[in-house]
Amino acid sequence: MKVSLTKGASEGPNKLNAFDNALLEAKIGNVNLIPVSSMLPPNTEVIPMPNFEPGEMTNCVLSHQYSDNPGDEISAVIAFCQAREMGCVIETGGINRDVKELEEEARFMAEYMMEKRELEIIDYKEVIQTHEVIDKASVVAALVYHNPKRH
User: Fold this and answer.
1) Which of 2, 21, 60, 134 has its CA 20 to 30 Å from the CA of residue 28?
2) pTM over the 0.90 mark
3) Integer distance in angstroms from the first to the last C-alpha of the chain?
């Protein structure tokens, strides 16, 4: 399986448009996102974001945050741990949270999932998107699963 990590942040005139603009910045704004739970098969490979076909059905684990309070710092985080047998993905985020605290929380959650499965971690990756709100803003971070028929 091939996956990509991506992120985006944007302002917009309302909650929906701010979210859509953040998805566009993350290069996943023209696809249909299908939320999935957080499991990866063995030998998952992280590759750069491809160009998806408009309207393509795309599985992902998505973290997003919105605020319309100027000055808020909004954050979205995706992280994953990989073992030989499988991998686990987590999402977290928040408003006005310390980035270091979010990094630690993400790592803890991913490592805990692996520990409960008695799996040895061989790889860990994360992506964090932050943004200081000007008016109405959204941030996204995603792990996108690639369609094996296309990629």
Assistant:
1) 134
2) yes
3) 9
Its domain, for residue 39, covers 2-145
Catalytic residue among 10, 25, 75, 91: 91
What one-letter code names the amino acid at 42? P
Q: Is residue 91 annotated as part of the catalytic site, yes or no?
A: yes
* Active-site annotation holds for 38: yes
The CA-atom distances, in angstroms, between 85 and each of 53, 97, 108 are 31, 33, 20
Angstrom distance (rounded) from CA 72 to CA 145? 31
Q: How many domains does the chain have?
A: 1
Kindly state whether residue 150 falls inside one of the protein's structural domains.
Answer: no
Please state, in angstroms and rounded to a whole number, the distance separating the CA atoms of residues 46 and 43. Answer: 10
